[in-house]
């Protein structure tokens, strides 16, 4: 087990930031850790990385307890916080060499060179960190988090400040890393989470409100299935209201309808057959899918 939390709890005075959080993450999983601002994401990540002690409960990283074995936890974990702390007066190459020395790495220069190449910092390696754009400073933070080859990576908003080209490159890098390591990352970009993650954890007001595989998203919360139907003739399309098992039909635009059914009662093929029998000419037919954004909004909109 790479990461395990058991009733992890954190209070600041009377305020509960994280409320008895429990979950397990296996090796080589890429997990999206989501929640609105103030939900407890960063607090949880700080506790896992031994920067913040819990009020109660326990957690372990690669079998090492965050309270009794913090040094071992840090050996197995790389952490990129949301606000990336860097020595801006240092050069990129110099800073990473210093971090390699702190970790006591062998072959420091070779490892730093590998990380600089992996994170696309080659053109910037001889610049002062303070001269870099925010996107390149994020890359420096990512390089230092991976420098000691940890088994678990915790990335808090890792793509913040990146331009569209850099976004694609960093996402590809995270995907490659996730083939061999456990990656936990938070993001407010739902399309990014859906594209990268194997699994999603959502917390709201310190509580875990969802834990599901990306492939299981269509089966979470929604008790209905929705099919979008584009018909060539509005007059004939009115017959869609008589589809077997249909709950209701909503007109979206001219020739475009949302046909809503109880979960598991129909299929695209049966709708197509019905339309053929009723001489309804179809221009398009597809099933609406549940997205991470749908799930996030439903679970975190309630106060």
Features:
303 residues; alpha/beta; Alpha-Beta Plaits; four-stranded antiparallel sheet
- CATH fold-type name of the largest domain: Rossmann fold
Supply the CATH superfamily name of the largest domain. P-loop containing nucleotide triphosphate hydrolases
Q: How are the strands of the largest sheet arranged?
A: 6-7-8-3-9-10
Q: Which oligomeric form is depicted? A: single chain
What is the global morphology?
A: elongated
Q: Give me the Rg, rounded.
A: 24 Å
Instruction: List the total number of helices.
Output: 10
What's the CATH class label of the largest domain? Alpha Beta
Query: Which range best describes the helical content: under 10%, 10-25%, 25-40%, 40-55%, 55-70% or over 70%?
Result: 25-40%
**Structural class by sheet pairing and helices:** alpha/beta
Q: What is the CATH architecture assignment of the largest domain?
A: 3-Layer(aba) Sandwich
How large a portion of the residues is in β-strands, by DSSP E? 25-35%
Q: What is the averaged pLDDT score?
A: 89
Quickly count the domains.
Answer: 2
Distance from first to last alpha carbon: 34 Å
Number of strands: 14
Uncertain runs are: none
Largest sheet: 6 strands, mixed
Order of helices and strands: EEEHEEHEHHHEHEHEEEHEEHEH
């Amino acid at each position: 087990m790479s990461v395990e939390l058991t009733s992890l709890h954190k209070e600041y005075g009377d305020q509960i930031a994280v409320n008895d959080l429990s979950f397990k993450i296996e090796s080589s999983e890429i997990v999206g850790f989501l929640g609105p601002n103030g939900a407890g994401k960063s607090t949880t990540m700080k506790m896992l990385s031994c920067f913040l002690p819990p009020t109660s409960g326990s957690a372990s990283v690669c079998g090492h307890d965050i309270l009794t074995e913090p040094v071992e936890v840090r050996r197995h974990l790389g952490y990129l916080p949301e606000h990336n702390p860097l020595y801006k007066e240092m050069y990129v190459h110099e800073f990473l060499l210093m971090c390699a020395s702190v970790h006591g790495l062998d072959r420091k220069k070779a490892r730093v060179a590998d990380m600089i190449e992996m994170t696309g910092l080659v053109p910037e390696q001889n610049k002062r960190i303070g001269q870099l754009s925010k996107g390149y400073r994020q890359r420096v933070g990512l390089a230092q988090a991976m420098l000691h080859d940890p088994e678990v990576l915790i990335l808090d908003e890792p793509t913040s400040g990146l331009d569209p080209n850099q976004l694609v490159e960093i996402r590809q890098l995270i995907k490659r890393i996730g083939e061999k390591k456990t990656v936990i990352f938070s993001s407010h970009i739902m399309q990014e989470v859906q594209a990268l993650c194997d699994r999603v954890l959502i917390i709201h007001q310190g509580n875990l409100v969802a834990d599901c595989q990306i492939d299981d998203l269509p089966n979470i919360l929604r008790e209905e299935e929705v099919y979008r139907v584009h018909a060539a003739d509005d007059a004939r399309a009115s017959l869609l209201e008589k589809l077997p098992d249909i709950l209701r039909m909503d007109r979206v635009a001219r020739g475009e309808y949302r046909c809503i059914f109880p979960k598991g009662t129909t299929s695209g093929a049966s709708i197509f057959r019905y339309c053929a029998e009723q001489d309804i000419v179809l221009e398009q037919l597809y099933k609406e899918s549940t997205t991470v954004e749908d799930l996030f909004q439903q679970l975190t909109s309630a106060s």
